[in-house]
Amino acid sequence: GSNALRMSSGIQIKLKTAACKSKTSSLLCSPEPAIKPQSKPSDKLNPRTIDPFTTYSRPPSAFAAMYAKGGIPCRLVHGSVKHRLQWECLPETVPFDPLLVTLAEGLRETKHPYTFVSKEGFKELLLVEGATEKAIPLLPRLVPVLKAALAHSDDEVFERGLDALVQLSAVVGPSLNDHLKHVLTNLSRRLMDKKFKEKITAALQKLEQYGGKVS
């Protein structure tokens, strides 16, 4: 009787052990999770967006990439009152080609510090001695870039493009006249906007002043 009791209890222990092992192995080896996440109907309508802080974020613009690589020879210096540019070398020694065109392209940027660097860099480069002779050969490439800024939907980009156009006109004078027809359409469209009417009118007066009677 005691032997039979021992055998039955031993069989029960073996059966329990085997059951535990099979349950453990099924959990470890099962290709599917025990609980499947329920998909919501909204998942099809609203796919998961990309986290902007991951490595899959939007690639930088050409100007931003060049600035990051040190291709723009000036840097933003944060001041207590206002910001300024610090040039790695004297602006007089910097080749206008292609830097002036690159800075003009940067006027379409909408993020800091690229907005400040492009606007201030373009302005300061045109102030150097001999800027007129250096800028005139670049007009066929500069004007289309400024036209793109003037056609931009962002108001601040448009204003930067307008300021740059007036600055360029002050430097190259009548040489800009033949190119003005390419930008006047963009100016006339914005002229209908009340908030730009005064600024554009003043800009046109300056273009006429710098361009002479022909303009």
From TrEMBL:
| Residue ranges of the TM segments | none
User: Which InterPro entries does the protein's record reference?
Assistant: ARM-like (IPR011989), ARM-type_fold (IPR016024), Parkin_co-regulated_protein (IPR019399)
One Pfam family name is ParcG
Q: Which residues form a coiled coil?
A: none
Q: What is this protein called?
A: PACRL protein
